[in-house]
Every structure is written in structure tokens, then in C-alpha cells.
Amino acid sequence: MILLLSLLFVSSTAYQCGTGSSTIKPPEDLSQPKYFPDDWREGQPVPSMDAGESCMRTVPVPKGYYANVTFYKNFPKPQYGTYAGYSNNKVTAIVNDDSHPFIFMSPEFYVVFQTQNETGEHRFAFKIEWIQFPDVYSEYLDVFPGDPPIAVVPNDRFTVFRTGALSKITLSPFSLADPSMSYLLRQSLIFDSDTFYSGFLGTLEHLIYSKVPLRSTRNRIAIFTFGLNKLIDYPLYMGQDSKDGGKYNIYWGANCPSQGLCDVSLDGTFGNSMTVTSYNGTEVIHDFRNFPETAHVNVYENRIDSTAKVASLGPYDYRNQLPIEVKGVEKFYELIGSGVIQMDVSRN
């Protein structure tokens, strides 16, 4: 009876978060989770917030730990009112009915949540768990100027790209074969050297939305993905010398479904761009859509130089060259100029 009354209270009574900001301190026993609101627990209905609320909660993350946070949200306007801020000052929207975890690094993260004065319930709560860094093997991958990027499939290791003492490294993301699973990219941490205690640079989710290569401040950059090796069997990121990756305003990789046509984007919104695919087999370019007059496309197999170029395409002559077979493992689709092109590709 007491439990039933508690459930009825949580589900029927709207709470006030208290205007302004405050801190949710970790418990003394870090094996115990923390909840917001304090009197809510998993298994209970997600509580409603009062209308017209505007609040922020800052949560410290102890050294040697990361915060695994699950949000429970359902607002009348799905994209409105809530986002999470990382310690690198990047933010990510918290959307309706997405209970896949976020991972946050020391020293802290913050949550902003707001409700409008409108009809409909604003349900919001979250759970925080503090988890120690795993004891994992570090795998070092050496990159050299002029070499193609090294593409990596998610694994259970702490992957470190390194180059010469006077060089830097860029890390670029690959898209998911199924874009609806993009929440998985939150399960990653990128560091500005070769340990969990190095400066936090971001996540693969941050990279895939920006499409801009992430440049290290040192000659090493590291990444760890949490359990993605059990879910994904194709490359999710690539590292290379920054002088090579820095030639393009956008540099990213594309993954394709196992069957059917693949829609590969060549994004020259901000100028020259590079799209990479990593697949040990032949790709066939069937068509280009929206080929602007301001763009020229070069296609390379395995590396970017004149001996590896298999096609050079402009807006007036590309149809005469289709279809185009592209072999090798890594394929490079270079857009020189500006504009956005959608490319129809299949794989043999």
C-alpha cells in the first residue's frame, strides 16, 4: 500500500526544480547511484515538472571515474528545453524517449532543463552512476605524414594514434551504416594524449555532427569506445597526420548498409572536403545528384596521389564516365570547390 501511494504521488504531483543553478554532489560511497529528483527511482513513473521552470544542475565527476547518466524525458515538444553540457564545453540535446546512456568526464558536466507555459506534461528525471576507468590494454598506432588515415573498427582496447614529436594528429569519424543508431556514438571518449587522465576532447557524436577533423595539441590522440565492439563490426574513426587531414574543411568517413544503394554525401558547404569509405571490396558509383557548377570531384584508391586517381569528374562530363568501379580498401572521394553532392554507391 505504501509503495502504491508513493507511485501515485510521483506520477500525479509536478515538482519544481528551483529556478537557477545548483550542484548535485556525488555520494561518499561512489558505488551508489544518484537520482534527480531526489525522491524518484527507476521503475517509478517519470515525474512531471511544473510549467515555466528554468534550471541547471552541475554534477562534479571525481578523478579516476566517469559518469554514466541515463535521462528519462518526455516533453510535449520533443526537441525543446533540455540539453547536457560536457567538460569540453560541447552540448548535446536530450530528446524524448532516449534512455541510452551519456558518458561524462571529469571535472564536471551540467544539465539544463526548461518547461514552457503550455498544456501537456513535461516529464523529466535522470540517474547518475560513477564508474571507475577500466583497466585495459593500450594499442599504439603510428601515423606518418603523407600516409592515408588508419581506420579502426571498435574494439576493447585504448587506441592511441601517435606521430613524430613535432607533428600533430587529426581524428575523424565515420557515419553509422544505420543513422538511427547515432546515439551509440555517445559511448566514446577522446583524449588529447595517451591516458584516461589526459585532456578530454570530445566524443564521436560531437565529431559526426561537426564533420570537422579533431586536431590534437600534442603528438598523440586516444579514443576508447564502451562496448561498441559488441555492436559494430565496421570502422568508426580514423587517425592521420594533421598536415594531411587539415587540407580539408570537412573530413569524414561514410559507412554503407550491407545491401542496396548507399547514399554517400560529399559536403563542400565550407569549401574543399574529403569523404572516405573503408571496405575491402569494390564500390560502384552509379550516379551523382545535385552536382553544382562550383564543384569538381576526384576519386582515389587506397591513397591520395596522382597515381591512385581513378576518376576526375566535373558538372558537365560526369555522366559520360558512369558507372565507375573503385577498388582497394580505402576509397577517397575529394570535392574541390564548394557545394553538396549526394552520390549513389553500391558494393560488390
Estimate what percentage of residues fall within beta strands: 35-45%
Count of the separate structural domains: 3
Instruction: Characterize the largest beta sheet: strand count, sense, and whether it forms a barrel.
Output: 5 strands, mixed
Roughly what is the average pLDDT, rounded to an integer?
A: 91
Structural account:
With 348 residues, this protein is mainly beta. It folds into three domains: 2-132, Spermadhesin, CUB domain (Jelly Rolls), CATH 2.60.120.290; 138-247, Sandwich (Jelly Rolls), CATH 2.60.120; 251-347, Jelly Rolls (Sandwich), CATH 2.60.120.290. Helices cover 6% and strands 43% of the residues. The chain contains three helices and 28 strands. The strands form six sheets. Strands 1-4-9-6-7 form a five-stranded mixed sheet, with no helix packed on it. Strands 2, 3, 5, 8 and 10 form a five-stranded antiparallel sheet that branches. It has a five-stranded mixed sheet with strand order 11-13-18-15-16. β24 and β25 form a beta hairpin. The longest helix has 11 residues, at 2-12. The relative contact order is 0.12. This is CUB_2 domain-containing protein. Residues 13-134 form the CUB-like domain.
